[in-house]
Amino acid sequence: MEERDRARHDRDFELADRIRERLGSLGWVALDAPDGTRLEALAERSEVPDGKPSQLQSPDRTDFSVILVLYGWPEDVRRMLSSLGRGRHQLEVIAVDISEQGIPPRELGPRPPGVTVRVLRPTRRGGHASALNAAIHQAWGRIVCLMEPSLEFGPNTLRELDEALSDPQVGLAGPFGLRNFDEHHFEPSEGGAADALEYLLAFRRRDAARIGDIDRRFRYYRNFDLDFSYQVRATGLRIKLIEASGMVRHQHRLWESTPVAERDRLSRRNFNLWMDHWVRAK
Questions:
Q1: Phi and psi angles of residue 15, each rounded to the nearest 5 degrees, phi first
Q2: CB-count exposure of residue 45 (10 Å: 0-12, 13-18, 19+)
Q3: 105 and 192 both lie in a single domain
Q4: Residues 68, 205: one domain?
Q5: Whether 234 contacts 274, CB under 8 Å
Q6: If the chain, 282 residues long, is cut into consecutive pieces of 10 residues, what is the mean pLDDT of each piece?
Q7: CB within 8 A of 89, min separation 6: which ones?
Q8: Are 93 and 116 in contact (CB under 8 A)?
Q9: What is the pTM assigned to this prediction?
């Protein structure tokens, strides 16, 4: 921590970032303030929602846990479930229903062979990040996938995610990458490198405690994936882009149904959270 403070004082931000990653690999988050760095244990950032015991330390029961947050539109989930029937992995789908009226589980459609579906209805609607945290703590899969319901799996997506995360140096894998060139703008990645992922983020469940929970202030979905990507990188783990040919992105219903001024306001708010965590804190 003292070494990082000296690096920041000398404006050697590249060294300061490397030390942040070293601290992350040891289980600490470096939080910067004008008077110096404060360390927070990753283990202390974990929340167990609704009083249910966390399953993160329990043995794996299946290959994948695919986590969705539902605001409505069960037909999107039915389409996604039908695409899962193409693979050979055993997996569960955890759908966290935070819609206004609630979606009857039968409306999610038939389950393909080898796929189980669990629907969680939190007693308190805390927003997108809290819904994801709740599901992560209840997941049983060896690999956890945070996924938008607007996506449809390709025939080899799960296999490619599994192969990418077999590398112990890789902490996050997915098909939709972003590059950050000036700390204020992200552009889609056109090569094999990515600074962050969006739409589909896969990680090993055993790394969840090391990574820590998603910041619950991300009540709207936009840009939480940027922040979580950097949170993974802060532990010293790398991001891996997969090809995922055949994967389809459909219309994002929540984005399209939110008034333009409101979605812009919420998106800017979330981007400012990312800026506070990873840019302004330098």
A1: -65, -40
A2: middle
A3: yes
A4: yes
A5: no
A6: 86 82 70 70 49 84 94 92 77 90 84 85 83 93 96 91 96 94 84 90 95 93 95 94 89 93 94 89 64
A7: 63, 64, 114, 158, 159, 162
A8: yes
A9: 0.81
